[in-house]
Every structure is written in C-alpha cells, then in structure tokens.
Write a structure and sequence with these properties.
By secondary structure, this protein is mainly β. It has two helices and 17 strands. The protein has a single domain (about 1-335), classed as Lipocalin. Helices cover about 5% and strands about 55% of the residues. The longest helix has 14 residues, at about 1-15.
Length: about 325
C-alpha cells in the first residue's frame, strides 16, 4: 500500500499545473475505454455506454516467480491437491450517466459477469467450473472542485456499490456439487465505497491524463469475510490521427489487499489444502500494466473504443493465477 501511495503522490505532482479538458468534440476527449469515471457532462445531458471486458489468466505465480503446476500440487513439490491452470473472466458493463447540474454528473454501472476456470489434480485429472450472474451495481457522483480550491481543475468521484452480485455460485467438481471458491464468486456481498481523483488535459494535437481510484469494502458480508481493498493509479497519453481517430498508451498500477475473515463453507477445503483459491490470504498482490488503445468518434456522436493491456510486472500472494491480458471494447453515446 505504501508503494501505491507513493505512485499516487507522484501522479498528483506531475499533473497539478495542467489545464482541464475541453468539451467532448474530439475522439481523445474521453480517457481510454478502460478508465471509469474520467469525465462529466453538461446540465441535462445523458450518456449511455456498453463495455465488454475479457481478462485472461494463465499459470500460477508466487511473488514475482512463475510456478509450474508441479510446484503447486502435492504430487510435486507443492502443498495442494488441486491447482487452477487458467481462467477467463468476461464482464458486460452497462453504464448510464446524467448531469442534473452543470457541475454534477451521476453515473450508474451495471455489470454482468461470466467466469470459467480450468483445474488439474494431483491424481492427474482435470475439470472445469463456470459461474455467471449479475454483479455489484454501483452509483457514483462526479464533479470538479470549486475554483477557489487548491485543485480547481481536478475531477473527483465518490460513490457506492451495492451487494447485488451473487455469492452462492456452485458447480460440479470431483467433490460433487460444490460452492465455488472466492475467485469464482460474482459479488463482494458488501457495500463498497468508491473514491477517486483525476484529470484529462486536451491540447491541439494530443491529450493526457491521470486518475487515482479506490474501492473499499465497508464491512464483512453475510459469509463472514470482506474482500480486499483495491486501489489503482493510471496515467495515459493519446495522439490525434485525425478528427475521428486517436491512439493512446496507458500505464496502470493496481494494488489488491487479501481478504479479511473466512467463509466457513471453505473450512474443510482449506484445512486439507484442497486448492489455493479457497485461502483468503492468497487473494492480494500488485501489478503494473501497459495498455494501448484507439478511440473513434463519429459525427453522429457515437464513440467506439478499444484497449488492450498486458502486465509488465506482477507480485502476487500465491500460489495465485497471474493475469496475462485484459481486452476492453466499448461504445458510448452522449445526447
């Protein structure tokens, strides 16, 4: 967490003297599509959006070291009877933004999540599990500081996510119809505070920006655990190709805490070292990603965007599946 705070302070220092972005008439007036809550709207304006996000995870990691399956399983040098080998997480995100005043924009995000994880066993077997359901819906307010404040051009966001996502996902495993582990559950089960600070700066032929954002669970859920705090700092640069297209590059640092408490439904699996994904102390870590993207703005106001990111560095509390790539494709329309 100290490293995240240092990165946040550096980002603030680098951007504190910059001017704010202009009205959204260019493809790079919005941040790359992987950034949430980067802009506001004029009074009475609406925006609808849809994002498709695919996160691909493959191979296990402990700290910065990648592990072979034999280093996770008891049939080799590891401690577990089952090891995850890869996972795909797909999120469909519907968004609605509305500005009731000139300096306040409200944002609602409605996610639907689909997970698919493959496993191998110490006995040489293999199996897959799946889960899908509505995720945690969030409501967020976005606004800029007053002109008399020390940060008059910065955009702040403050919101709350609600425990609408399911925590009782089950599937067939070699142990029968089982409650799936933490990473396959859809919702957090808790109310989560969302807080952020950011800035997007437009110049004649390019734009750049920064955002700091955190998601903080407020209490344990009904299953007696709390997911870890999550904090990110992101900085990007985009370049206009013409009045319709821009390209971007972004750096993203993400920190995740381990979970607090334990789900009692995993007690036996954890006591027997069944699989690392039921251990609340193996959920945290940090990584730094590099992302490239493109924005396209049509004269009608429809905006299409794509961003592809890959980790340059990962340090995980493992064994834990590492992230290989994240693809985000989105559509936006303001009216």
């Amino acid at each position: 967490m100290k490293l995240f705070l240092k990165g946040a302070a550096l980002g603030l220092a680098l951007f504190s003297a910059c001017a704010s972005a202009t009205d959204a008439t260019r493809p790079d007036d919005h941040a790359p599509i992987g950034v949430m809550g980067d802009h506001t709207h004029h009074k009475g304006e609406w925006m609808l959006s849809y994002r498709y996000m695919l996160m691909r995870m493959e191979d296990n990691r402990d700290g910065t070291k990648r592990l072979d399956e034999s280093e996770v399983l008891i049939s080799g040098t590891g401690d577990y009877r089952v090891a995850p080998t890869d996972m795909d997480m797909v999120m469909h995100m519907l968004g609605v933004m509305y500005a009731p005043t000139e300096n306040l924009t409200l944002m609602a995000m409605i996610p639907y999540v689909e997970n698919d994880m493959d496993h191998v066993t110490a006995m040489g077997g293999a199996f897959s599990t799946e889960s899908s359901n509505l995720g945690d819906i969030s409501l967020t307010a976005l606004s800029s500081f007053s002109k008399t404040s020390p940060l008059p051009e910065w955009l702040w966001q403050l919101g709350l996510s609600f425990p609408t996502g399911d925590q009782d996902q089950r599937d067939l495993t070699p142990m029968g119809n089982s409650v799936l582990p933490y990473s396959m559950q859809i919702g957090s089960g808790s109310y989560n505070l969302i807080a952020g600070l950011g800035k997007n700066v437009s110049r004649e032929r390019d734009a750049f920006g920064v955002q700091l954002r955190g998601i903080f669970p407020l209490d344990k859920n009904d299953d007696d655990y709390k997911v870890g705090n999550r904090a990110t700092v992101s900085a990007w640069y985009s370049r206009l190709l013409n009045q319709s297209f821009s390209v971007s590059v972004r750096g993203l640092y993400e920190f995740r805490d381990n979970y607090s408490g334990e789900d009692p439904r995993y007690a036996m699996a954890q006591a027997t070292n069944l699989v690392p994904t039921v251990d609340p102390d193996l959920r945290g870590g940090a990584r730094f990603d590099i992302a490239v993207g493109v924005n396209w703005l049509h004269s009608s106001g429809h905006r299409l965007a794509l961003e592809y990111q890959v980790p340059a560095w990962q340090d995980l509390d493992g064994p834990q599946l590492e992230t290989d790539s994240v693809l985000t494709v989105g559509w936006q329309l303001a009216f």
